[in-house]
């Protein structure tokens, strides 16, 4: 059994040939060279064209229960796009995302109200995630403790620093012991003490066989919290494996770019892609998929 196959036990999320393409208006002349868009272009404001952004090129992977998967890559590589697709916030252009449960993103902030104190926002956030009022009461102390906000929990959320509100959002999002949790750049604003608590909570989730996706530019957080890492670059799924191995390749690539060694950076990318053991998801019978 190869390194990739060991990830395939007990799948939580299956990403089956998923890609995401956006069409955006641009002032650049003939950005995509796609004649099919010429009719549409005529209807746009003069001077504007449609550009095609390949935010995520076709990719397949399987995330299992008990995995904390770090998602790394340069700006604009498709990390957040992939998280939105996994979270069900957007539909992919091709392929499908299958999950064993509804993924919880730290974006419960949508349900939170800046004018209300943290304590009332705990109720709002938990209700928005489907907890009953009795369950919220049972979880309340644990959430306040994890947030580490102390008496600030009685202050309106609009008075919180970005670190404080991200701590509260993390505490709320993990309160329901989510089976699938998406943390997109959510933990970077916490201080050292919160990092310890976050780590402990994420270890608990992993032990309960949760599956966590963690997008971060902070390699220390990725090293600390993840047991698997995927690397995206300009929409390409470049590598997938043990954190140290993937981070080493990524850091070499970034260093080569910094030095202006484009040939070296390209070589690193090609090596990463070549070494990756891709999974193949097959439809064994209508509606049933198997993983190779
Ligand atoms: N709604 C959208 N409409 C058009 N283009 C988009 C949209 N969302 C993302 N993109 C484009 O898709 C590409 C990937 O963006 P994405 O936000 O997924 O990257 P990222 O890896 O999360 O970047 P960062 O590290 O900067 O957060 C970028 O080129 C971005 O401009």
UniProtKB/TrEMBL annotation:
Record Pfam families: ABC_tran
One GO CC annotation: membrane
GO molecular function, one term: ABC-type transporter activity
UniProt keywords, alphabetically: ATP-binding, Nucleotide-binding, Transport
Recorded superkingdom: Bacteria
Family: Belongs to the ABC transporter superfamily.
Name of protein: Teichoic acid transport system ATP-binding protein
Organism annotation: Arthrobacter cupressi
